[in-house]
Amino acid sequence: MAVRDFRGVQNGFIKYVFLAVSLNPTVSCVSQRKILLIGTHHTTPKDRLIEIMPIASALEDFRPEIFCVEYPIPTDTASVKYKGGEDIFQRKEAMQKEWKIPRGDMNKNIESLQQYSHLNSDIQKQMELQQLYFLSSDVCNADYQGYLIMTQTERSTQNADWIRKNSPGFRVMKEIYEAKRHRNDEYYSLVFPLAIKLNIQHIYPIDDLSTWKDYEKYYDKLQVLDTANEDKIKFHKHAEYFYKKLKSLPKDSNQWIFSNSPQTIQDLLYVEGYKIDDDISNNDIKMLQYYWVSRNRIIAQHIADVARNHPRTRLVVFFGASHVGPVLEELKKLNNDYQVLTLLDIMKN
Fold first, then answer.
1. For the chain, what is the radius of gyration of the CA atoms?
2. Rounded Cα–Cα distance for residues 203 and 206 (Å)
3. Which SS3 state, helix, strand or coil, does residue 42 take?
4. Which of 145, 179, 192, 330 would give a disulfide with 130, using CB separation of 3.0 to 4.6 Å?
C-alpha cells in the first residue's frame, strides 16, 4: 500500500541532498530519452498544498512531453474490474444506452476527436470525447477531460448551462470531479494543471492491479504484529524506523520533497516489501514481496513501452511515493536506452 502521510524534510537535509545530487556524475549524462519518476501523495491537506509549488515549477522547467500516471490501462480487464467492480462493463453498456451514444468502434471515434484541430475551444466535442473515454474505461483521460471541461464551466455560465442541458453524462463527470477536488487529489492539484500548462493532450495510464487483491490479503495479515515470529518483528522494524523518522521532522518542512529524497526512496523499498532481509523465511512476507515486486515490474514494463514508442522525449511518471524505488530498480534491469531520474535530480538548489 502506498505510504500517504508524509510530514516534511529539514532544510539542512535538503541542502545535503542537493549537494549529493550535484556530485552524482550520472545526473549530467546525456541520453536520448529521460524518464522522471515522481512520488506523489494521493491526497494533500489544504494547508500543505503550497508544498506542491516547487515540484510543479521544477517539472515545468524539465518540460516533459509525455505524462504517465497510476491509472489502469483500459485494455487490462482484470485491473479495470478491480478498480470499477466485476460488473463494470455491464454498467458502462447500460450508460451508453441511457446516454443514447451510438454503438460502433469507440476507438476510431476517440481517435477522430483527438485529431480535431479545434477540440480545445469546442466544449461540445470535448464532452463527447470525455464520455467516450469514460465508456471505454480509459478513466485517466476521462478524468483529465472532465477536469478541462469543469474548469471551463466554472469560468463561463454559458458553457455550464449548455453542457447541463445537452450532455447526459455531465452529472457523473461532475460528481467525480468534485469528489477528487474536495480531497485534493494529486491529479487535480498537480498533474492535470501541469498538463494544461505544457499542452499535454493525452495521458498514458501504466498501472497494474491484476493481482492487487492477492497483495492486500498478505498486507492485511501482516498489519497485526506477531510477537512470537522473529521474521515479522524484523519486517515491522523497518516500518517503525521509517514512521519514527517522519514524526521527528519539523512541521514547516516539505513533505513532497521528503518523500522523493534518496533516503526515503530506499527506506520505502523495505516498508512496502520490495526488499526483505536475506534471512527472512516467513511465507506471508515472501508472498507480500512477490506481489509487490510483480506489480512494480509490470508498471516498469508499461513505462518502458511508452518510452520506446516515443524516442528522444522527456517522460514523467506520477505514482504513489512507494513505487519510485521499485520501479527505478526494475527499469534498470530492463537496460534500455534511457536515463532514469528522480525529483531531486531536476530541482535547483
1. 21
2. 10
3. coil
4. 145
CB 307 within 8 A of CB 28: no
**Do 312 and 32 contact (CB within 8 A), yes or no?**
yes
Sheet with 314-320, side-by-side order of all strands: 204-207, 66-72, 314-320, 33-40, 338-342
Percent of the chain with pLDDT over 90: 71
User: Who wins on pLDDT, 159 or 106?
Assistant: 106
**For position 143, what pLDDT does the model report?**
97
141-159 residue pLDDT tens:
999 999 999 998 888 777 7
| Stated pTM of the model | 0.88
Provide the pLDDT for residue 260.
96
Q: Which residue shows C-alpha cell 461532475? A: 174
| Bridge partner list, 340 | 35
Amino acid in the structure at residue 258 = F
Res 228 pLDDT > 90: no
Q: Which residues pair with 338 in a beta bridge?
A: 33
Decide if 337 contacts 33 (C-beta within 8 A).
yes
527506506: which residue's cell? Answer: 267
Cβ-contact 5, 247 below 8 angstroms: no
Residue 183 identity (one-letter amino acid): R
The backbone torsions φ and ψ at residue 318, rounded to the nearest 5 degrees and listed phi first, read -110, 120
Nearest to 30 by CA among 339, 348, 345: 339
In the chain, what percentage of residues exceed pLDDT 70? 90
Q: What pLDDT score was predicted for residue 32? A: 62
Q: Is 226 helix (H, G, I), strand (E, B) or coil?
A: coil
Judged against a pLDDT cut of 60, whether residue 42 lies above it is answered with: yes
Render 59-121 in DSSP notation, one character per residue. Answer: HHHH--SEEEEEEE-TT-HHHHHHHH-TTHHHHHHHHHHHTTPPPS-HHHHHHHHHT-TTGGG
**Of the candidates 4, 82, 7, 24, the residue with the CA atom closest to the CA atom of residue 258:** 7
Say which DSSP state 203 is in.
-
Strand partners of residue 339: 34
